[in-house]
Amino acid sequence: MTGDKGTNSTGKTKDAGWEVGVRETVTAPLAVVWDYLLGDGLAVWLGETTLTLEKGARYETRDAVVGEVRSYTPNAKIRLTWRPDDWPHDTTLQLTVREAATGTTIGIHHEQLADRDERRMMLGHWKNVIWQLTAPFVKSSTLS
Fold it and tell me: What's the pTM value of the predicted model, to 2 decimals?
């Protein structure tokens, strides 16, 4: 690890390692956004794969990311393990949607990252992904 000092560092948790989260609000109904995320948008956030939406279902993307579904709540969230083939450890990825005053907020939360460098890399990745996911929708001017 590179300079990890205690739990006061941005993105460092007490017991889940390093984490990162991004979110964006779009002016579209939740059901429309959810259908997109698990349809045409799946390849954007997870990669090209077939995903069975039930606990314990395994997946592998065309880019050799592997994992399994940990939990699934329709129109709300999916939580899964996520590990590229060149990483020695699993991480946990969560995709959520929730109604907002101006539409729907899409959130991506990634935890159990190894260190600050991995967090920094994934923050850039997920910022790019959220930008691509929200591009088909009109973005709200009241982002949080």
Answer: 0.87
Domain covering 27-134 assigned CATH 3.30.530.20 in the classification? yes
pLDDT tens per residue, range 7-55 = 456 677 766 689 999 999 999 999 999 999 999 999 999 999 999 999 9
Angstrom distance (rounded) from CA 81 to CA 92: 4
| Under 8 Å between Cβ of 26 and 140 | yes
Residues 6+ apart with CB under 8 A from 59: 46, 49, 50, 51, 52, 66, 67, 68, 69, 80
Q: Where are the domains of the chain?
A: 27-134
- Nearest CA to 110 out of 133, 87, 91, 96 is that of 91
Give the helix ranges, DSSP H, for the chain: 30-38, 42-45, 116-134
Between the CA of residue 36 and those of 5, 51, 113, what are the distances in Å? 40, 14, 27
The angle at the Cα of 126, spanning 8 to 53, to the nearest 5 degrees, equals 110
Looking up tokens 């279902």 gives 57
